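Subject: Sanity check before I submit

Could someone independently write out the structure tokens for this chain? I want to compare against mine line by line before I put it in a report. The sequence has 263 residues.
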Amino acid sequence: MSKSDWALILGASSGFGGAAALELARRGMNIFGVHLDTRATLPNAQRVVSQVKEAGREVIFFNTNAADIGKRDEVLAKVEERLRGSGESVRVLLHSLAFGTLKPFVAGRAEEAINSSQLQMTMEVMANSLVYWVQGLLLRGLMGAGGRVFAMTSSGAHRVIPCYGAVSAAKAALESHVRQLALELAPIDISVNAVRAGVTDTAALRKIPGHENIARLALERNPHHRMTTPEDVARAIGVLSGPEAHWMTGTVIGVDGGEDITG
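---
Independent answer below. Compare away.
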């Protein structure tokens, strides 16, 4: 990786995104980060920014809604302004947005079940926004040959979990988007892959009803007898961002210590 390389990380203040920002910075990349934090959680983003700077890399964070079309255009315009005339580009895009509705499809009362707007919002944020960000980067000429696109998926794409139906559908769609983007971007030497992390103790996991049982089962299934960590996943993304991995595209890469094969 050269000193002119940048990573654009969606969901950069915590979890997989925060860990990936630090890992890629340690490997020599500058970081653009998009996150959505309130005053209470803003210290998470500030910590990541500080650690990236300690690694000697440039870092620019945007506290905004990555799924909002207007905000997305504002961020891309600022990225374009920073890179204009510099010969630098975005080499890695990581989509790590975890915001969706965790409600059952069917319930005893209508208000307890997921509705149309919640289902559509989950799909837009956790799946379709990947396509929109890739489109924006390419239309502005911010990513070229050698680029890497990663999207965080989960075993929910092929398994059922109570109250996880909308997110499962979004993850399945996300993996489909990855395959289609890989097909269309192969001629310009940009690879696109989904990264399927094992069950990880993140803020997103703790929002799932019954997350304690999910964590317990993951510990039982995992051959390493521990849960996946954000750092496990970040290190894999770091390796996959190197030139040696350019021929890997359009696939789902498991980073789970073997958890998925035993379920």
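---
OP: Matches mine. For the report I'm noting this point. The chain has eight helices and seven strands.
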